[in-house]
Amino acid sequence: MRRMTARPANAHQARLLRLLRDGGPNSRAQMGDQIDLSRSKLAVEVDRLLETGLVVADGLAASRGGRRSHNIRLAPGLRFLGVDIGATSVDVAVTNAELEVLGHLNHPMDVREGPVAVFERILEMAAKLRAAGLAEGFDGAGIGVPGPVRFPEGVPVAPPIMPGWDGFPVREALSQELGCPVMVDNDVNLMAMGEQHAGVARSVGDFLCVKIGTGIGCGIVVGGEVHRGVTGSAGDIGHIRVEADGRACACGNKGCLEAHFSGAALTQDALEAARSGRSPALAARLEAAGQLSAVDVAAAAAVGDAAALELIREGGNRVGQVIAGLVSFFNPALVVIGGGVTGLGHTLLASIRSQVYRQSLPLATGNLPIVLGELGPTAGVIGAARLISDHVFSPA
Amino acid sequence: MRRMTARPANAHQARLLRLLRDGGPNSRAQMGDQIDLSRSKLAVEVDRLLETGLVVADGLAASRGGRRSHNIRLAPGLRFLGVDIGATSVDVAVTNAELEVLGHLNHPMDVREGPVAVFERILEMAAKLRAAGLAEGFDGAGIGVPGPVRFPEGVPVAPPIMPGWDGFPVREALSQELGCPVMVDNDVNLMAMGEQHAGVARSVGDFLCVKIGTGIGCGIVVGGEVHRGVTGSAGDIGHIRVEADGRACACGNKGCLEAHFSGAALTQDALEAARSGRSPALAARLEAAGQLSAVDVAAAAAVGDAAALELIREGGNRVGQVIAGLVSFFNPALVVIGGGVTGLGHTLLASIRSQVYRQSLPLATGNLPIVLGELGPTAGVIGAARLISDHVFSPA
């Protein structure tokens, strides 16, 4: 089952592989223009890559005068597995070496069932994708988890919503099971990498990606690279205080952002609005389904329910307040909003924007787009594939 | 007056120069160990650097067996000018190529007098340092200003406390006057670089440096490099909101950190405490001097004045609250507190610490030192020299 995927021998080869991953098939001549290598040196490195089987020749390139050069592309049989473990579901996808999604499965699952149950499910899903003929084996797998990760070892650390995962050797265990290299990261970082590779942050080097789901987190990209912080907890903005004497939070403090706005807080607020009679639309949905979630708040807001709209606006104001501070601090080129709660759409975005544009200095917001993510649940799995491809496409 | 300082011809030479700057004189053999260059290639590059005059041979190195090698050091005649323009005073220093301060002058001056008056003063101070025999000329100058800077051009942009400086070509103008290369940056970034080069952040790659003076700003160092943000305003944390319906701020918003705690806000609060009779110690100092500043608050606190202590504690709580958010977001390895208000010392630090350790997640604060800067007003001028040396010691 273990595939012996070759690794690039040096930094030049690594750069060539990433260039082909991000830009698709290319001619030798154009690759030479893009990376600063002499023609002869480039030829040597490309020939060596051809020998490893990581790249293949792919027909003649368009003529630029003189002898026509061969197009080069990444081996069409390379396969990455992208896994995004959320609080309440698991996404598993297969991509090719250009990180195009060939197949994508989603399964509801509570992360609190613990690593053994979740891994079993992931392996099943991967097997199903393989059985569908999408992959013979995997050249690497990227895994996202909803909590902080000690990145070099691929181990979750004190993840608040993942009891049973603290210190579990996710990287090592899954690498054994899958028979390929594995890298593990926080799910929010992977969303940022996904939007950077194939979504709204394409070509942007410095941006923030705020994920509002069961919890709230922020992916930070600096100079094209994810900033993970000294212990891997960078971006953990859910426990920034938004209210001096605010609601009690699961972390033990009061007034944390997550305690006031996140999937969980919103569900609470929606239940209250339904039961108190303030929201006829939510009351009707509660009666029909026996429970409520962010989806119901979105639906109620869509039919003009005032209480639902107010919940979204208030939440947007609070997230916006925190983002305003981050924008002043970090001065990003772009802010991406993603995660389950983005079903709340324009109302949410509008109140986030008005807070940021009002509270941050004009110099930091003058050219600052604040936009919804483009890839939805695909961002995480593409980010996961990107993570492991960065590893596989670097010198061993 | 213009000195024709040579520049390194390639990245290897640049790295050798910075190694000698940061580590002092060194043998060829040891430099070879530290940068990944073959013995023969290293010999070639060192010989070329000797030809430029940027480095000189400096006696025999300690024996490591075999032929003894010559020590190499940066040319002893190289001189950098470090200038730190504050809101209320100007610091000018001369350093050698290892960024050791050879002479340092400080002059009270209001930055609002505008660039022409301030430049005149700087040139006078530089001339005085030259007349004292500390430099024949300058190989480069670094300039810090108390506001955001469009870094590539060296131009202040919309600096709130620097009317008359907006868009002024500081880099170009001073480069003309001084006859050497000039780089301009925000004063807080320079403080961070100074503490990194010679102070408490030595060898730390990811840290925050919070400067509390007339205003409040934060230098952000990521992977050893200053993060300036997409428009150069990163670190502008003085206008993060700390109070929902707080004090009116000069920026037009309410409840900004600076409106509640900074040199200016503290002076206001001290006056009020003196006049209202809450602080006998401050009242006595006001009567004696006719005015009050942070220094007086520190002195009153030192003799146990309850109102002064409370002002410091309250201010520390507010700064601490903002820093707690930044720590959760950025997960730094170290937080440095500097600037004029650090005269408030341990009381201030204690309340900052208690806020951060209470509000940020344990994972981010588990190994997080929060310390006072070590270099005081020298940090800025060393940072300025470091900035220009990075430029001079890079390929033209």
- Work out the radius of gyration of chain A: 23 Å
Structural class of chain A: alpha/beta
N-to-C series of helices and strands of chain A: HEHHEEEEEHEEEHEHEEEHHHHHEHHEH
Distance between the termini of chain A: 21 Å
Total domains of chain A: 3
- For the secondary structure, the number of strands of chain A is 15
The major sheet of chain A is characterized as: 5 strands, mixed
Share of β-strand residues of chain A: 15-25%
Strand arrangement in the largest pleated sheet of chain A: 6-5-4-7-10
Q: For this entry, what is the oligomeric state of its chains?
A: homodimer
CATH class of the largest domain in chain A: Alpha Beta
Query: Treating each run of at least 4 consecutive H or I residues as one helix, how many helices of chain A?
Result: 14
Shape of chain A: globular
Q: What share of residues of chain A is helical?
A: 40-55%
Mean pLDDT of chain A: 91
Superfamily at the CATH H level of the largest domain in chain A? ATPase, nucleotide binding domain
